[in-house]
Amino acid sequence: MSIIDNHVREIENVNSEHIDILQLPMSKLYLKILGFLYIINNTNFPITLKIVTGVLNKTHIFNNVVLASKPCIIKTSNNSDLAVIWIDIWDS
Known about the structure:
- The protein is α+β, with helices and mostly antiparallel strands.
- It has one domain.
- Helix content is 21%, strand content 29%.
- The protein has 2 helices and 4 strands.
- The protein has helices at 2-10, 49-58, and strands at residues 27-37, 66-67, 72-75, 82-91.
- Strands 1, 2, 3 and 4 form a 4-stranded antiparallel β-sheet that branches.
- The protein is elongated, with a radius of gyration of 17 Å.
- The model has no long low-confidence stretch (mean pLDDT 83).
């Protein structure tokens, strides 16, 4: 792990102050949220990744959760106003 730690700390775009401990994940899990409104109330705009991540950051059950990738928002069908949100989570 020290080889990986040294390599990551040498990358220019990475702030080494934000790196606590590097570790390899044991497995990756996913969370599937059903029935999420695709269109924001009183607008014609679809839900965005920024909104989803903002809600995740404010929810207490996601305090110690590390996302494996960006959440994926999928509209259930062309005629539907609902979406499914997939969230990949590192389980370590």
